[in-house]
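Hi R.,

Here's the chain you asked about this morning:
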Amino acid sequence: MSDEREQKQGRVADTVSGLLQGGTVPEARRMLNALHPAEIADLLESFPVAERKLLWELVEEENGGEVLLQVNDEVRSGLIEEMDEAELLAATSGMDVDDLADFMQDLPKTLTGAILRSMDNQNRQRLEAVLAYPEDSAGGLMNTDTVTVRPDVSLDVVMRYLRMRGSVPELTDHLFVVSRFDHFLGVLRVSDLLTRDPASPVADVLDTEAVAIAADKPAREVAKMFEDRDLISAPVLDERGRLIGRITVDDVVDVIRDEAERSILTMAGLGDEADLFAPIWSSTRRRALWLGINLLTALLAAYVIGLFEGTIQQVVALAVLMPVVASMGGIAGTQTLTLVTRALALGQVASRNTRALLVKELGIGILNGLMWAAILAGIAVIWFGEPAIGAIIAAAMVINLFVAGLSGVGVPLMLKRLGVDPALAGGVVLTTVTDVVGFMAFLGLATIFLI
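And the predicted structure, written out as tokens:
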């Protein structure tokens, strides 16, 4: 299904590009605006900046706001720079409060006041309530559009109230039950509302054990809660236990997607470089830092090799084989590092189980080390006819895979304790350790036993 979607997206992109190059702008406009806003966003992200600007001008006003919400932050900032105040105000009209709060993070401060002034008093207060919380918190993620009922009314009264409203917010699977001071008491499930005796009071059927989320809870933890409990929506409470909004699963999906994208980019040292066609200079600056750090770690490994220059000159086979030990250690360490980093993100690693995890990974390192050491030793003996070289590279392999397991667990735990994201720096640190230990073990043992 994913391949079919990608193929369709590619065909549409090719067709639209051909129409633009051929000067058939009306047909390109018609085809573009027939797509879902999310598909338009994907299309915009796949075009270089110059063509993207031309394509953006073809997006109809009623689609503009939703498309801006769907593109990544970097592309959105570029599109906003091309829009005047009237276009931005038009794009924000009709946005949900939580979406509008996210959108305003990218706007110039001179425009946020204009947007607030264009809103009615109720929506302005709702927006300000969301903006009062950090963007990556439950409060910043929530929507203030909630349906509340009192515990002392009957289900029939609730049904009449809903009919009078004429609609309910999207993804409403339950109504929130509050006191007259808005303190959260529980939820009334829509299924109970429809199936229970209409004369029953809300108090008899409300669920007081329903999950409620503190407004200051990090968005990542909110997403984990939704995932673990299969939630569709959940109430958000302030520090006094008052209902101030709700979070729905569509917002959580966005958080999960953003976290996944950020993790992938961070592991490559790309930070927030989400725009495939970001300006060359800005992309160069972002990547230069990690290239520089990698150069320093490579020089450290080269320095270790240089310490054994005389040994390598006397036994040329060492120069051929020494990258193998470092490479195997790097691969083994990265496997452990990836698992531990993921477990840290999911909250699965704590002081109670760190020892057991370390013992397991060290055991894997030793067993893998012994197995591949035997294979590599045999290859070395056949290749160079020197049993001593086979024994030395086998010993170095066991040592390095042991250290790889130790580092795969220890490095992310150490970085997390220092407040550094393990996904950001873990790979660089681990590779340095396995390279240095691999070269040191192999060349050091060779110096002792061969020279």
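The CA atoms of residues 82 and 209 lie 49 Å apart.

Let me know if you need anything else.
M.
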